[in-house]
Amino acid sequence: MSDSLDRYFALIDEIVQMTLKGKIRSKQQVYQMLLQGVSAGEGEIFERCLSSRITTTQSEIDNTKDEFKQAKATRSLRAIQTIQGEWERYQAENRGSNAITAATDAIANAETNNRLQALLQAIDPNQAQALNLDQVQQLAKSITQQAQTSSDSDRAIELQQLSEGLTEGLKSWQRLQEHLVSWIYDRNREKLGFQGSPEENGPWALWAKQVNSPFPKALFQTLALNQSIVELAAKQHLQLNELVELAVILQCLQRGLVNWFDKLIYDAKVGAKLSISTFLTFAVIWSQLASGFNRAGNSISITSLTNACFQITLQIFRTFTIQKYFPLYGGIFASFSGDYLRSALNYLDEPLRYVEGTQEKARILTLLGYSMGAVGEYQQAQSFHQQALEIARTAGDIPCEIANLNHISRICVAQKNYTEAINYSQRALILSRQTGERLGEANALANLGYSEVLQAQQLERVEPEVYETAINYLQQGLQISERLSDGYGIQYVLQQSKSLCYSSLGIAYIVLSQPQVAIPYLEFGLQAAQMSGDLYLQGLNLVYLAEANYSLQQIEKAIYTGSLGMYILEQIYSPQWRQTAGLLTILQGQIGKEAFQNVLNKYRSKIIPLIGVDGYDYIPELLVKYQNE
Questions:
Q1: 486-522, pLDDT tens digit by residue?
Q2: DSSP code of 39?
Q3: Where are the alpha helices (DSSP H) in 235-377?
Q4: Which of 351, 409, 420, 520 is most buried, with most CB under 10 Å away?
């Protein structure tokens, strides 16, 4: 040990002296001396010597009064800091080299049906030593070398395909990179998201033009036209290299978009909402590919291919769940619409069946549970939330545990089980106050007050103090939510909760036959829901705005808000669209079809920016659909 210490002190001093004398003129020369002078396995010893020299030299600068000695010590410190910087670079490159070697060995030595999974594990961005794109290129070269030296011809062919997939994926990404976000600025798009048609200049149609490989091009075209990914995948007979290329392309697109959107966190309407949309969009794509491949007769093992797609889906989930804007109180609605949104709920839970209880699984189940509840699948939602609750409790994820208590309370309300709703909201309130989880407390208070109002109405209780207590809980929850919004860096995190607090108060006042008081709360709730992109809460606030306006005989406003709410809720398969369709049918009968259509025409300029021309035209069709049912 002492010999090594002496040797490394001498090496540091030698580099410093050569730097001061001008014999070393570049950082690369320092790097080369470290490369030659530091023995493998002795990095910790060298770092100890380096730290000691920095401390000693800094002390000399601080304590000497001789200006000449102080100046010399300052120059020495700069030289030592250069050594430190080059040592850190050496360490980073050495770790990358070791990671590439380990990944190559794992891929080469894996069983035939497991090599694809081993490769996907190697390029997983969640790893502690995640590979950058240059290192992925080095990995491709390393796998090629393994293929060339392999005596097993089948193994060599498979390794070569994996290498080609990485290389072609990186080439495709280079062509796509400059078009990563250009679609956002085309024709001053008012709406951002991943649905749409080529005429809307969505990203998929643009990206399809930039790639040469058949399958990525076909996938992007399918997405642009809002067609079935499952049907596309079921018709494919992919080789390993084609799937690997797609994995690299989609991973680069997803990471690039999230990084770009995350820089827009100053704009709650854009940044976090679109980052969430990106994670969910790419997770859905891989889940749907898995389902489609499972139907096809591929040259690769069907199980291997399907598992590979699920593996990538879970990698996306794991990255998503650690983001500070992960929506514990939101669902799968931001920037989704139509059939694409409906498909999301059918596929996203599939990969989770292959995962044991983890914190990531609890959070994703929370997201899915909320989404299932919004579309009226209460039994499935309850199951997801109960699983998430148990996993979160075991994992010590307090915010997630509180969120699921709150969500279960809300589902109990939907099922008119108000006693259990109060029980769960009280448990959430106690735990949130014990742990200082203010966001959970705001939601718990909203749920508690909301449940007590509805229970009192169900029991036909007329004592004013019962309702006063419930309204007080709702007001407390709203106050906490408002105060939190001033201190959080990303307001998006709070918008769903704020919307829930506002809408709960609004609905409570409608129940209490005070529609004039209800309307401002519902309008604020709608604004917050629009900022978060939560279509369910948007629809919910619009539905009750229609009822409040109808109670006040403000017929035109009732038709306007009711039509929007009905359309939005029907688009996400929420059964509550029929509630408003019934009200609108009554209004249509009262004023006549022609007058009803005239009101829609009057509000056409306000409706189209929110749901588009197709949505506007679909409103009368929805009423006919409801009447026929």
A1: 444 445 557 777 888 888 889 888 988 899 999 999 9
A2: P
A3: 240-262, 271-295, 302-321, 338-347, 359-374
A4: 409
Angle of helix 438-458 versus helix 398-414 axis, rounded to 10: 20
Structure tokens at 275: 């980052």
CB neighbour class for 63 (10 Å; exposed up to 12, middle 13-18, buried from 19): exposed
Number of H helices, E strands in the chain: 28, 0
Give the CA count within 13 Å in the CB-facing half-sphere of 551: 18
530 burial class (0-12, 13-18, 19+ CB within 10 angstroms)? middle
User: Is residue 538 within 8 Å of residue 503, measured between CB atoms?
Assistant: no
Is pLDDT at 337 greater than 50 in this prediction? Answer: no
pTM summary value: 0.75
The 10 Å Cβ neighbour count of residue 242 is 21
Task: Specify the pLDDT at position 111.
Answer: 87
The answer to whether the CB of 504 falls within 8 A of the CB of 445 is no
CB pairs under 8 A, 24+ apart, for 466-473?
467/512, 470/508, 471/505, 471/508, 473/445, 473/446, 473/448, 473/449
State how far the Cα of 293 lies from the Cα of 302, in Å rounded to an integer: 7
Distance between CA atoms of 48 and 280, rounded to whole angstroms? 46
> Quick check: 362 and 403 in contact, CB under 8 A?
no
How many angstroms separate the CA atoms of 216 and 170, rounded?
Answer: 13
Write out 459-518 in H/E/C secondary structure: CCCCCHHHHHHHHHHHHHHHHHHHHHHCCCCCCHHHHHHHHHHHHHHHHHHHHCCCHHHH
- Spatial separation of the C-alpha atoms in residues 350 and 339, rounded to whole Å: 18
CA distance 559 to 548: 11
Q: How far apart are CA 124 and CA 142, in angstroms?
A: 18
* Residue 404 structure tokens: 């699921």
**Confidence band (pLDDT; 50, 70, 90) for 357?**
confident
Tokens representing residue 486 in the block: 């001033």
Chain centroid to Cα 126, Å, comes to 14
Contacts of 376 (CB under 8 A, 6+ apart): 573, 574, 575, 576
What percentage of the chain's residues is helix, strand, coil (to nearest 5)?
80, 0, 20
d(CA 584, CA 550): 10
- Residue 418 sits at the vertex; the CA angle it makes with 412 and 424, to the nearest 5 degrees, is 60
Nearest CA to 238 out of 292, 160, 316 is that of 292
Q: Kindly state the DSSP code that residue 181 receives in the 8-state scheme.
A: T
Sequence-distant (6+) residues with CB within 8 A of 217 are 208, 211
